[in-house]
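Memo to structure team: turn this sequence into structure tokens by end of day. - J.P.
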Amino acid sequence: MASLADRVRGNGRIAAGLLFNLLVSICIVFLNKWIYVHHGFPNMSLTLVHFVVTWLGLYICQKLDIFAPKSLPLSKLLLLALSFCGFVVFTNLSLQNNTIGTYQLAKAMTTPVIIAIQTFWYQKRFSIRIQLTLWVGAKQHELQVNSMQLLYYQAPMSSAMLLVAVPFFEPVFAEGGIFGPWSVSAVLMVLLSGIIAFMVNLSIYWIIGNTSPVTYNMFGHFKFCITLCGGYILFKDPLSVNQGLGILCTLFGILTYTHFKLSEQEGSKSKLVQRP
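Reply from structure team:
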């Protein structure tokens, strides 16, 4: 009875974590789109706010002993921080200038590029079936740190890079700049967006740490569909026939990958059991 009760409590915690991640992940997309459409806040400046708030949140978590920082060589983090800056800035730029449906499909199309980079640059090998439908790997294995330890160093470095870059691309103190004359509602929305971005990161790490990346990706399929429907309802984003076919193809590819990955994991477990 005790083990059953523990299992029920564990499943309840996982369900609560998944639900929390669903809410904040969808919220961040719609909130950022709302900020772009109704307040016109600059893209790079919004990304800078996200990085700063994320680092402050992680600093508080570190002080509360939620995780322990690990010393890392800055040379190994420099390229990662620069890449992450580009990733978030261009992701938000896509959200700013496209419909939510197009934005989601563009994100899904990055995965074939990632497997090409991992195959030709890092000499990582995948089965043919997985190569056709891959999901994203992680840099943290190389540095032997968990996600929070990695983000704890990456976030301030990315913030510093954007702090230098923002004045060259966006106004700073003038109207439309990060320190320009914004309304109270705009400031509150931007700060809320930063806090939710921090929550998204934490919930992702918690889910992967307590379940598996496959479980998180499976759950991502559901978020994908909800986000597209929300864009159609909230922002009147049109859904053409081509977009509909693209959505179906993307979902088919993601679900096929999950099926093959689970099959490979089951095959590996069976081989281990059969060994004398």
